[in-house]
Amino acid sequence: MLSKYELVDGDLICRNISFDDCNEIYMNWLNDKDVNKFLEVRWERQSIDIIKEYVEYMIKSNHSILFAIIYGKSKTHIGNIKIGPIDKHYYNAEIAYFIGNKEYWGKGIATRAINLVSNYGFRELKLHKMIAGVFDENIGSIKALKKAGFYEEACFKEKLISPVSGKFCNHLFFTKINNEE
Questions:
Q1: Looking at domain 6-130, which CATH architecture does it have?
Q2: CA-based angle 136:157:106, to the nearest 5?
Q3: Structure pTM?
Q4: Ranges of each domain in the chain
């Protein structure tokens, strides 16, 4: 298991996910067609038991860290961001994230969480490169990545089936390199 973490940027906290986060609100996010549109969990109805199994797997993981995104004075859990799998031989990792609470969409919180986690990956985990895959139709995620300093590195043409149109769409990969090495 990787260590416990709490990353802070003002009113934004990214901390290790816990079993306390496995609740009906989290489950409802994952079952909401607007929230899960670009998430792989959209293929299967989610339950609290499924979420707890995943959280347990992530807590025990030696290759990934799942953070709860906590926001505001009320310290509300509004989404998650994952770093991993972490490749310790080649010093790179993937990131994946979602803001489940729609009240916080379009407020730049995903960008801030991406910055917190990628800076942590570069400074503490000594990563050289971070990678995020995204549907070409996921404009919000593309904007968040670009604002966080990621650039489009690759486009796999018609690799995915669009959850919006049902047609083939492109799978884009965005990258950020550690320039502080």
A1: 3-Layer(aba) Sandwich (3.40)
A2: 5
A3: 0.92
A4: 6-130
